Fold:
Amino acid sequence: MKLINKYISLALLSGAMMSSCSDSFLQKDSLTESSSSTFWQTSNDAMMALAACYDALQSNQLYNSDQYTFGPLYMECISDNGGHFNWSGWIEGYDVAMGIQNPSSWVFSDYWKANYEVISRCNTLIANIDRVDMSETEKTRYKAEATVLRALIYTNLTMTYQDVPYLTEPLTLENPSKEKSKRADIVNNVITDLKACVNSLPEKADLGRLTRGAGYAILGRLALYNEKWDEAISAYREVMKLGYSLHPKYSELFTQAGQTSPEIIFSVRYEGPGMSEGASFNAHWNTPGEFINGTIDLADDYYLTDGKKTADTNYGEMKDGKLDVSKPNAAHWENRDPRLYATLFVPGMKWNGKGGEGAWYGGAAASLSTVYVMKYFDPSDTSNSWDNGQDFYVVRYAEVLLSLAEALVQKGGYDDAEVRGLIDEVRQRGDVNMPKVEDVEGTGLSKEALLEVIKHERRVELAFEGLRLFDVYRWKMLDKAVANIEKERTTLGLAYETRQYNGERDYVWPIPTAELDSNELLEQHELWK
Structure:
């Protein structure tokens, strides 16, 4: 077990945790004083506190999940990539997908608490580590790790709730409440913090600990999401100097065999089974997971191997204006971008030997979209899928390449060949080998056309990695996304929940009711009053 993982179970049992999930992150008790007289003395104390910061990322609302909570895969189900079609109403976030959410929706409260739990632990470490008897170099590194983790979390918060309380030090009895800060101010401050600390991180580290490349990649993501193109370009170019490369087998990447790949820039580590550190975000019952569906809209974005979108619309047998999902057309899914079969489970595929004619869904009930999810799911794991060692990849090199391409185009004055080269590198991964941009879309594309190529490539490359909803929000295409899935539902007569778009309000999550009730300084967003 790697060093950081060795300390997580100890941290869970000690006062090093400093705080625990509560009804409100703005609880009116001290987050630091309970162990201040006995803790923060040795390097072991510091390591346990740092491990606690990383451990908080394993929340079921952040980078893990069970089959009812939010998690990174299930976040895609409130975008146009997926849905809870077979389990509609049972999983956190379904009401957001349907457009019937309100400030009391569980997902808003749970996601808020999970994010602020990470911030609380990071702030406590930063505030106290100078008391520990250890080298200044190590102290500086630990502070940098906590600062970058906190930056990742503020990226999540500003992309959802937008204006939120900006905490950089522990709350106390004297100051238990905090008002909102503007999203733009938070972003500027976080970027400044990242620039100041990122070079204090090592280029190499134990698996699961932050490196310099991870710090720059998170800086790039935050800048990209906030249209700070120069900042994003600079950060991503720094990442490219550090020796990362694409894994040659996309089909292997999202398995335990792929998690030590030089493509993985930062991952949330899991070790299992039987170590109290296992993942469950990819759990199943030896069949495709019925609780998470892909959409046909996403599946058809995986083009034919000639690089062109299919013109075929025969998804299977129609009866009384409805697609009979028990009789799908497997031929529709043949000869596609190989990433389709590593990402989605479509008719014609097999699950651990089960599938094909008469058993299209590998032993599961028929998917109401005819599409299940394959990425991160391991059909060969028939006994430990609820407690397994699969890491979740927060940042990988393919995202960096596509994000740099986007930032260059958005800024303008770009080198067309450089941008195409970045996209082509992703497309031509060893076992993907899709045609180059110049061979399909051509050269000399307009800015708008080239951005569409990049957006398409992001969707098919990064599907079900917890990024699509943020892309839909920042590109202001939620209305189009909802319309596409509604068209899919109505045209094919599919038994989906109905989705609706409520205008600009749907781009900002409301501050949870429980937080408003416990903090008199907080004020609800104007669009939700």
Q: What stands out?
A: Residues 136-160 form the longest helix (25 residues).
